[in-house]
Write a structure and sequence with these properties.
three-stranded antiparallel sheet, 4 helices, seven-stranded antiparallel sheet
């Protein structure tokens, strides 16, 4: 008899896990030309971004936080910096962002990668409590994209987030026509 009374609890556990996994959604940003899977609608903030050569730019930071009790617990962030007014500094942009992520913990992985034909850096760093999976790339629209999934060590790495980034390289007037 006891075994039968446990079955509803097990079913409820599986259903709550499935419901938790379903809160992730595809987020499309037409102004900054990207798409990514996030745990809900991100909040956008503008922050100053200073290049290695001292140029002041503005970064758009899109942040979403997953339920801390879920298997996807963590903070997920996409930072977009428009280098159109500082194209001569694009050569240093990926390395500058790479160094900022590497400074956050012990390097577990750091290598050149390719995301949708964009040369990128893929990075994993850890400290005593968290893991950060990062992807850094520059698009044909002169934008620097920094993707960071910061999760506790107790949950699986945020690979689904890191790998979901899609960058659009179509001119903005063509995008307006496509998305009508």
């Amino acid at each position: 008899m006891r075994f039968i009374s446990v079955i509803p609890a097990v079913v409820a556990l599986f259903l709550s896990s499935a419901a938790s996994a379903q809160v992730w959604e595809e987020y499309v940003n037409r102004d900054d030309f990207f798409q990514v899977n996030m745990p809900g609608e991100p909040m956008m903030t503008e922050v100053p971004y200073r290049t290695v050569k001292g140029t002041n730019l503005t970064a758009h930071v899109y942040t979403a936080t997953a339920n801390p009790n879920s298997i996807t617990a963590g903070t997920y962030r996409v930072t977009v910096v428009d280098y159109s007014s500082a194209q001569g500094e694009l050569g240093d942009a990926i390395e500058q962002a790479r160094q900022a992520i590497l400074a956050k913990g012990m390097v577990k992985y750091d290598d050149i990668n390719n995301l949708d034909f964009h040369r990128s850096r893929r990075i994993t760093v850890e400290d005593s409590t968290k893991r950060i999976l990062g992807e850094i790339l520059i698009s044909a629209t002169n934008r620097l994209y920094i993707v960071e999934g910061e999760t506790p060590l107790s949950v699986p790495p945020a690979a689904q987030f890191q790998a979901s980034l899609r960058v659009f390289t179509v001119p903005s007037d063509a995008l307006a026509w496509i998305w009508r």
